[in-house]
Amino acid sequence: MELTKEKLLGFYETMMTIRAFESKAVALFAENKLPGFVHLYLGEEAVATGVCANLGTKDYITSTHRGHGHLIAKGGKVDLMMAELFGKATGYCKGKGGSMHIADVDLGILGANGIVGAGLPIAVGAAFASKYRKSDAVAVCFFGDAASNRGTFHESLNMASIWNLPVVFVCENNMYGISLCQRDHMNICDISDRASSYGIPGITVDGNDVIAVFEAASEAIKRARRGDGPSLIECKTWRQRGHFEGDPAIYKDPAEQQSWLEKDPLPRLAKRLIELKYATQTELDQIQASAAEQIEAAVKYAESSPLPALTDVLTDVYAG
Amino acid sequence: MKQMTYAEAIRDAMRVEMLRDPNVYLQGEDVGKFGGCFGVTAGLFAEFGPGRIIDTPISETAIIGSAVGAAAAGLRPIAEIMFVDFTGVCMDELFNQAAKMRYMFGGKAKIPMVLRTPCGAGMSAAAQHSQSMEAWFTHIPGVKTVMPSTPADAKGLLSAAIRDDNPVVFIEHKQLFGLSGDVPEGEYVLPLGKADIKRTGSDITIVSWSWMVQKALAAAEILAKEGIQAEVLDPRTLVPLDKEAILQSVGKTNKLVIVQEAVQTSGFGGEISAIVAEHGFDLLDAPIKRVTAPDTPVPFSPVLEQAYLPSVEKIVAAVKSLF
Ligand SMILES: Cc1ncc(C[n+]2csc(CCOP(=O)(O)OP(=O)(O)O)c2C)c(N)n1
Ligand SMILES: [Mg+2]
Q1: pLDDT in the model for residue A2
Q2: What is the pTM of this model?
Q3: Residue A113 belongs to a domain with what CATH number?
Q4: Measured between beta carbons, which residues in chain B are less than 8 angstroms from residue A178?
Q5: B189 located within any domain
Q6: Is there a contact between B127 and A96 if contact means CB atoms under 8 Å apart?
Q7: Chain B residues touching A146 at Cβ < 8 A
Q8: Do the Cβ atoms of A72 and A42 come closer than 8 Å?
Q9: What's the CA-to-centroid distance between B146 and ligand 2, angstroms?
Q10: For residue A14, which of A64, A41, A49, A44 has the smallest C-alpha distance?
Q11: What does the mean pLDDT of chain B come to?
């Protein structure tokens, strides 16, 4: 796929939609309108956007507790997402799951997840199903730097490698697992180094550069699709907010935070678009405004939606 | 005595026991400088340093597995699992290793460790961060299971758990962390296996533990106004269980309601019910009633979660149905 003007503007739109959704969530949480835990993707938009731009509806993703960006980039509907954050009957999970459990199986989104590292073997299973059915669908697994210390990471990479499965492991290295920075939770700098233990390709890219992410993912996904097996992509990025809303993140060095804010993926892409003359500042402002409008509409939808019926507690436990 | 919250009482128990015994240390995710996901370990890192208050990677299997090994080698680890819902990740280390080593080795090992972990719903944390899973642990011979409902009990029972020579699962409740009460200062150890009557009454026994004790007490106040004197019995430790205290109370009131936050099927309330049916059938004037969550995962939306949880109203209604 060539990086056409349309493609790059599409990236910008997706990233702006995620940014608008998450910024709105900050405000709504502060107003006490969102119950439960809300983990935001602000600052990491380029990763989901660059990866999912290579995927179709038939492809699978597994997401994390920090999943809003993955869902939007894979085509999730922001009104249904917002209604779920509000715990409304019209939400993606009828109000039963909340932010940490949004899924859209029809779009190949096998769910956000409250258990760190749980998505890896599930993605392996989706890739197995694809190979079993001789489909060319691939599975992409998003997970964090700290998740790569769980046994599921190691077991999944090994299993995917020996079975040569069409799965791409995308590590979002935002350098922290809650309060613990990467150097305190592992002994290596590049998580992509772990790929060599399983005999699969591993690459590290600038996760705040959507083009770099797109290109690395494009290669790994093509490889998986043509039957050449799994790979690991590490995207170095930064979570701009606390671990969840309400966490002041005092464990982070303000200077480090500042230096990463300067590497914010959105202004970086905007600059690129203007340099390439693919858009004017006015056009970019319009994209931003329309993303904000879309999110406002989603909030209206959520706020005016009904609460679940109390009898809903008992439904959906078993199929059939 | 000193006023402390439940969270402070837990911290105080760890602090006092760490000062008393250099073999006691704490490990878990974000327990160090961050002070724990719920602030329970705040200040311990500053006092004891990184050698004894240890931040771990997200590796529950190794958090519990290494605690088992350290305990077998003579230390007394306290290992924190951030939510009880994550104990699935380290279950083998608990139920096949910690619980069975002594027995399998013919009594030649001891595993003095504590697995501390918070349980419970009520904060819209949804299905993977809200469960009450005590019955999983009580079904493992070799493991003790403790579930305190007050700050003082939390301190006394955690101290006992740390001093115990067996693996103890110490389940805290997220809704109780902020609850204040009088707590003895300094060393304070309660026996494991001793129930506590939280309210005396002559007309009916309500057995409940952890957060549900608070709900049972509130229900008892309402019932008292209507002329029903409920006795609220908190076993405090599910294993070992103070069966005598339960039978004695039922012998006095002749009626039993069991309140558990966990889902109903195969819950610990069923065990208590069976014990009373087996050993106290003649004591009963009415069928045993259970107030529990339904057999579903914990829903996210606050309205659904409230409908899911056992409530004061549901307890009152269950009691009244027996009169
Ligand atoms: C098995 C398990 N252990 C611990 C947690 C608690 N927890 C939730 S998110 C998180 C940190 C995850 O860090 P990382 O994987 O780097 O993802 P990030 O939050 O940085 O996106 C932890 C410890 C959990 N949800 N599941
Ligand atoms: Mg991280």
Answers
A1: 73
A2: 0.97
A3: 3.40.50.970
A4: 29-30, 34, 37
A5: no
A6: yes
A7: 57-58
A8: no
A9: 33
A10: A49
A11: 98
